[in-house]
């Protein structure tokens, strides 16, 4: 059997006395949307941070296609094709949408140590920028400055930047938060369209969306995996019902 | 991220260049020297703006590279003959660039106030090295008896001993530095450092090793700063250790702030304004007794500009440009 796309083994991280993630095992396969759900403070975002290299685990390892990537700095993790979006909008507010996406698209091209060629000359990057913007439904706003966008549009820009990175693994941290119904649907359609050729880790609070789109669900409580499996299994799980979904 | 200057800015700059070209024809030696100093310090301030205004690294030790190039020129100039600029300038740049690489490698890891302190500390170390040692005249400073020349074979093409020659060489150098930095800013590298200034964390998350980009931009600024230091040493042929001191670094920062952070052409105008206003306030015929206390007036002037203009002189010019553009539509 080939190595899984992304594998977490006995992953733990604690901040002071708080065990944000403890002894977590998780596997993400190609073509799979793996949703992580759980109450606030369950350690979902910490898990994404561990995958993306934003934080280092206290214990345990992370493997990408069988190779140990534990402790790599974020920029090297991205270079391997693991991209993330942020829960709190994290974009370049002073730049236009295209410039935001340009920085993302250029990142995957390797070193940007080119000093005397105008950036606009790079047609390949420009093409990726316009593709990314249209995937996220922002092509009309290409030349608008990010800080003048609505909140929903800024969230879309976050997605567009992730698209411009062209990662094979998408780590989506609440991509729907703050989006209207139509925009949410747009993002969900996009995720569905990308799923066959990507491995997707999705954190989301909107349960209807999660159950509609996820191939696999992992329920986290207090940094631990409570239950993991297909949506059908999770729906009927007694443990999950008690801990998270409520008794009714 | 607007790098290419607007038409209005280009017109304003052409206007300034026209005045600069005219100055030597007055034949007034005092003025020619003053304006040479303005241009050279303008270039120095511009190089500082490259890291402060575009990469977001506020360096308080930029004089290190300025003074180091000046001292290098002294050390490689023989006492009885002039040194050839064609190799002297590259050597001075190499020394400044190497120093920037070493200081940068250690200081770029830090941020904000720590970066300010670390760069200040390195520059002060160099200051005391030259101030307290006999290498180059110690606290008395060092002299360059013969200014650099450009000699090809038997032919002397240029002699910086000529005041007008140095003047025009400085003007061309200033224009070259501006063009050079503009080209870099619109390259992929230039976009990346501007991204780092706005949101370094996000740049790392996108896959950029921000450390190396910050370091390279620090070295580029050090090189241009060194170039300016080389020219400055040619003005008086005198290199005091103060060129490396924190006052010099602070002066450059004042010029950057006065001229407009992140406008590139602004800090050059900031240098012109600062030296010009100093000259004005020292004028006895106008200010009488008060001219002895010109520093107080200069301080008030800087405060007034900072309070009244949002982003210095450069910011004002950009704003007027935008207004005019708006009214044309």
General description of the model:
The complex is a heterodimer of chains A (248) and B (329). Chain A has 2 domains: 1-81 and 167-247, P-loop containing nucleotide triphosphate hydrolases (Rossmann fold); 90-165, no CATH class. Chain A is built from 9 helices and 10 strands. In chain A, 36% of the residues lie in helices and 24% in strands. In chain A, strands 6-7-8-3-9-10 form a 6-stranded mixed beta sheet, with helices on both faces. In chain A, strands 2-1-4-5 form a 4-stranded antiparallel beta sheet, covered by helices on one side. The mean pLDDT of chain B is 90. Chain B is globular. Chain B has 329 residues and is mainly alpha-helical. In chain B, the strands form 2 sheets. A two-stranded antiparallel ribbon of chain B has the order 1-4. Chain B has a two-stranded antiparallel ribbon with strand order 2-3. In chain B, strand 2 and strand 3 form a beta hairpin. Chain B has helices at residues 7-22, 29-55, 63-76, 85-107, 112-132, 163-186, 188-206, 210-236, 246-259, 265-281, 284-287, 294-308, 312-328; strands spanning 142-143, 149-152, 155-159, 238-239. Chain B has one domain (7-21, 33-328): ABC transporter involved in vitamin B12 uptake, BtuC, CATH 1.10.3470. In chain B, helix 3 (63-76) crosses helix 8 (210-236). The interface between A and B is medium-sized, with 36 and 25 residues.
Indicate the structural class of chain A: alpha/beta
The CATH architecture assignment of the largest domain in chain A turns out to be 3-Layer(aba) Sandwich
Look at the structure and give the CATH class of chain B.
Mainly Alpha
Helix/strand order of chain B, N-terminal first: HHHHHEEEHHHEHHHHH
- The top level CATH class name of the largest domain in chain A: Alpha Beta
In whole angstroms, the N-to-C terminal distance of chain B is: 23 Å
């Amino acid at each position: 059997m080939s190595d899984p796309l992304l594998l977490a083994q006995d992953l733990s991280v604690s901040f002071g006395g708080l065990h944000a993630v403890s002894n977590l095992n998780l596997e993400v396969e190609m073509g799979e949307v793996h949703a992580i759900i759980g109450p606030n403070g369950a350690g979902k975002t910490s898990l994404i941070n561990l995958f993306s290299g934003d934080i280092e685990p206290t214990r345990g390892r992370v493997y990408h296609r069988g190779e140990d990537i534990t402790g790599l700095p974020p920029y090297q993790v991205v270079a391997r094709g693991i991209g993330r979006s942020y829960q709190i909008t994290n974009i370049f507010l002073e730049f236009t949408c295209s410039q935001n996406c340009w920085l993302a698209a250029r990142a995957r091209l390797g070193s940007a140590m080119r000093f005397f060629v105008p950036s606009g000359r790079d047609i390949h990057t420009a093409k990726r920028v316009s593709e990314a913007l249209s995937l996220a439904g922002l092509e009309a706003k290409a030349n608008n400055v990010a800080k003048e966008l609505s909140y929903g549009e800024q969230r879309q820009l976050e997605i567009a930047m992730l698209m411009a990175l062209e990662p094979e693994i998408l780590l989506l941290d609440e991509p729907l938060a703050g989006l209207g119904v139509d925009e949410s649907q747009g993002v969900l359609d996009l995720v569905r369209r990308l799923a066959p050729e990507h491995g997707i880790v999705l954190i989301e609070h909107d349960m209807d969306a999660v159950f509609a789109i996820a191939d696999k669900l992992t329920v986290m409580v207090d940094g631990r995996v409570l239950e993991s499996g297909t949506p059908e299994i999770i729906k009927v799980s007694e443990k999950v019902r008690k801990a998270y979904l409520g008794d009714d | 991220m607007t790098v290419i200057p607007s038409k209005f800015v280009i017109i304003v700059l052409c206007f300034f260049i026209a005045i600069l070209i005219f100055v030597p024809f007055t034949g007034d030696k005092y003025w020619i020297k003053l304006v040479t100093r303005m241009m050279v310090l303008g270039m120095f301030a511009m190089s500082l703006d490259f890291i402060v205004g575009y990469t977001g690294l506020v360096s308080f030790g930029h004089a290190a590279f300025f003074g180091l190039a000046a001292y290098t020129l002294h050390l490689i100039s023989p006492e009885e003959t002039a040194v050839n600029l064609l190799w002297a300038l590259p050597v001075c740049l190499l020394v400044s660039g190497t120093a920037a690489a070493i200081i940068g490698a250690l200081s770029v890891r830090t941020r904000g106030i720590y970066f300010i302190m670390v760069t200040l500390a390195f520059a002060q170390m160099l200051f005391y090295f030259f101030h307290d040692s006999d290498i180059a005249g110690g606290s008395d400073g060092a002299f360059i008896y013969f200014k650099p020349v450009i000699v090809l074979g038997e032919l002397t093409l240029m002699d910086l001993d000529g005041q007008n020659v140095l003047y025009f060489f400085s003007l061309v150098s200033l224009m070259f530095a501006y063009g050079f930095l503009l080209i870099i800013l619109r390259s992929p590298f230039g976009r990346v450092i501007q991204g780092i200034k706005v949101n370094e964390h996000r740049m790392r998350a996108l896959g950029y090793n921000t450390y190396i980009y910050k370091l390279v931009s620090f070295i580029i600024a050090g090189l241009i700063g060194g170039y300016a230091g080389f020219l400055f040493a040619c003005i008086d042929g005198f290199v005091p250790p103060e060129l490396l001191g924190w006052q010099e670094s602070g002066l450059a920062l004042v010029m950057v702030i006065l001229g407009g952070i992140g406008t590139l052409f602004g800090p050059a105008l900031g240098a012109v304004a600062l030296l010009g206003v100093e000259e004005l306030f020292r004028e006895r015929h106008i200010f009488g007794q008060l001219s002895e206390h010109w520093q107080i007036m200069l301080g008030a002037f800087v405060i007034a500009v900072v309070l009244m203009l949002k982003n210095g002189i450069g910011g004002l010019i950009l704003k007027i440009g935008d207004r005019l553009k708006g009214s044309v539509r």
